[in-house]
Amino acid sequence: MADRVAVDWRSAGLDPADVALCEFTEKLTRNPAAVGARDIATLRAVGFDDQGISSATQVIAYFNYINRIAEGLGVPSEDWLDDDGTVRGPSLKGHGQRKRPGQSEKGEAEGEEGH
């Protein structure tokens, strides 16, 4: 499903609430001044409450903000990260991960080293 949404959310077979959210996301991203009461009413009609609408709007705006900063500063794309979010290459293995209680430095449960 995620692949279909990434390629074309309009033909991905999403439920009405997800379609409305994608339409709202696209409008807020491409033409924020055009967003109005009708857009909010559409989200409410498919089940979003005020908190859900507020949360969605904040997440959409945050991603737009961060992308504009990156584009404006010429930040290069993250070539270490695949489009699906997986890390490329062995050099970053374990980067940013914390050892969990009961876990060895190798990431194995304690007492399971070498098994």
Short précis:
The chain is an all-alpha fold.
Question: Layout of helices and strands, plus pairs?
Answer:
Layout: H1 2-8, H2 16-30, H3 37-45, H4 50-73
Helix pairs in contact: 2-3, 2-4
Any descriptors?
about 120 residues, AhpD-like, globular
State the end-to-end distance: 36 Å
CATH superfamily of the domain at 2-76: AhpD-like
Question: What's the CATH first level of the domain at 2-76?
Answer: Mainly Alpha
Count of β-strands: 0
The largest sheet is:
none
Structural class: mainly alpha
- How large, in whole angstroms, is the Cα Rg? 20 Å
Q: So, CATH architecture of the domain at 2-76?
A: Up-down Bundle
Oligomerization status of the protein chains: single chain
Q: What number is the mean pLDDT?
A: 81
**Strand content of the residues, in percent?**
under 5%
The outline comes out as globular
* Tally of helical segments: 4
CATH names the topology of the domain at 2-76 as AhpD-like
Give a description of the structure:
There is one protein chain. Helices cover 48% and strands 0% of the residues. It is globular, with a radius of gyration of 20 Å. It is built from four helices and no strands. The protein has a domain at 2-76: AhpD-like, CATH 1.20.1290.10. The two termini are 36 Å apart. The chain is an all-alpha fold and 115 residues long.
